[in-house]
User: Fold this.
Amino acid sequence: MGRVSMLRERFFPSVLMHNGWLQLALYLWHSRQSKLLVQQNPELYEEETLTLRDGAEVSLEWHQHSTASRDSPLGAGGGGGGATAAVSAHSVAGRTNVAAATAERQLVVLLNPTLTGAAADFNMVDVAKAITESGGTAVVFHRRGHSHRSPSGKRLRTPRFHMFGSTDDLQQVIEHIEGRVPGCAVALVGYVCVAHGVTTVYWSKTN
Assistant:
């Protein structure tokens, strides 16, 4: 955490985005553009269906290096406003650290979306793009019954009650990634309360 300089910096929204309503409008526009980008460029992600030990299926979306996101209005220099500026700052701050990590071991960043999040969300697309361009590998983990490729999600073959996601499912996904990319270092990123919760609980159980 000490290496992430942006955590110690004050955030100032763009002069054009000082109003909360304008920020909401930008968020809705950015979200819509992101979903259109993924729909029009399905090669941005390689979908992998992983069958867990109890027969349940989860979806892993491996981000692919492509010029589609670079040429879109979602690129680091496009759009303007608070949300895009924050993602751009994250990308710049993280480049050196990602490059240093991948010099020794291949870095795989597992992105865990929030309750209704998916790989097509702009925060996933932008961050996955920054990780890939920095030499790492980005994977979006869709939990049981979740998928951005179908409005109804992925078929829930084996229901399992949980509040924030199953740490056992997360463990199996990590084991699968380590098997697919031997010798890699897996970093976990959880978004907002749901994904942050399961990621933190998993970390506390394994450390």
